Structure formats: structure tokens, C-alpha cells
Amino acid sequence: xxxxxxxxxxFLIGSACKNEQSPKASSTSELSQSxxxxxxxxxxxDKGVTGKYSTQNSYEFDWSxxxxxxxxxxxxxxxxxxxxxxxxYGMTMDPTKGRITIMDFxxxxxxxxxxxxxxxxxxxxxxxxxxxxxxxxxxxxxxxxILDHECQGYKIETDESTSIYYVTNNxxxxxxxxxxxxxxxxxxxxxxxxxxxxxxxxxxxxxxTYKGKGSIDHSMKxxxxxKEPNTFNLNEYKRIGS
Length: 242
Prior knowledge:
The chain has 242 residues and is mostly beta strands. It is built from 4 helices and 12 strands. It comes from hydrothermal vent metagenome.
């Protein structure tokens, strides 16, 4: 279940990236102190030709997804790059600025690519998710059409928050597939019907609203899905901070 919550909060990652420190303020010690999710691939020795981290060098994308995110702090647009069934995705706040963040869940690394006077890339671990001990109540609600996609509504409740998701199962891809680090929880232990869990994991979240106790209410909505092939080769970038 935590995987679904994480995907619904993707725009928070965008907000964090928007306010991210300049690469000059980063250091090797900062990266080494960050905790990565423990996958065996992280034990591969530091013998990769790309530097401290052994990583995938080329990332291909087939689709782009535009998301409008709203909160009490304002409205932002984010642009996601997706390859169906891949274990990574890309995100940028402004496609014209030459900056993109790629989150690779296979090796649990975040690559921040910047194309300015020179091409540079900064790599750091994806933070380890907090332990999820919440009990969830999930119910189906109404249906609606978003961007010509029929969507099923789901209400997800905990003691601390209420979220509404609208999910389609006829989109060309799903954000949930391949993102394995947060998928270890047993749905039954969380009070979630396994069939509903399957529907959520196989679908694409098109709209999401969140209301919580003592936290900022927020929402997101997909405003555009389009075929847009793109490739980023890390070998073309100078590595910093690793």
C-alpha cells in the first residue's frame, strides 16, 4: 500500500527538486551519509567506469506526463518521462531549463542531470522509506472520465488522513509497475482487499486529493499524456559529488 501512497505523492518529489541545493553545495560526505534501500546491486564494487556508483548509463523514455499539483502554497506543473514497465522515471519542473531528475528504483539512485554550459550529473541514493505501520481502509467510490480515460475512484482512510484517487486501467503505462522497494507489505495486514490493491497497482493515477491532520492539504491531476521519445546518456555528462 505504501507504494501507492508514494506514487500519489510524486509531486512532492518535484517540489523538493525545485528547492534542491546547488550541486556546488553538495559533497561526497553528504552522499555517503544518506541511506539507500538495501538491494544486492548496491554491493557491486565501485569498479564501474562511471565513478563511485555502478549505474545504468542510458535511460530511454517513450511517454511524457504533465501533472498539475496544488497546495496551500500554490500551483506547480511537473513533467514526467516514462518508459512502460521500466524501473525508473524522469521528472523536470521546466523542460526548457535543461535539468531533469531520474529516479532509478533498480539501483536505488537519483540522477540529477543539468545541461548548461557543460553537461553535469549528480548521483545520490534514494532515501530509505519510513516504516509504514498504518492501517488503511480502502473503498471504491464513483467513476469519472479524465482525458478520455475512464477512471475508478478510491477512498483511502487512515487515522491521520483521507485521500481520494482516480485510477485508470486503460492508459499506455502505469507508474506503479517496476517500483519495487515499497511493495513488501502484505495488503491483508494493512486491511486492504487484495483485488483493490491489484487494481491500484496496475492502474495509472489520474487525479489525487489529500486531507490530513496537521499537514498541508494538496492535490494533483494529470493534464496531458503524449507520446514523446527521449534518451539521456550519462556518459555525456561530467559526474560531480560522487
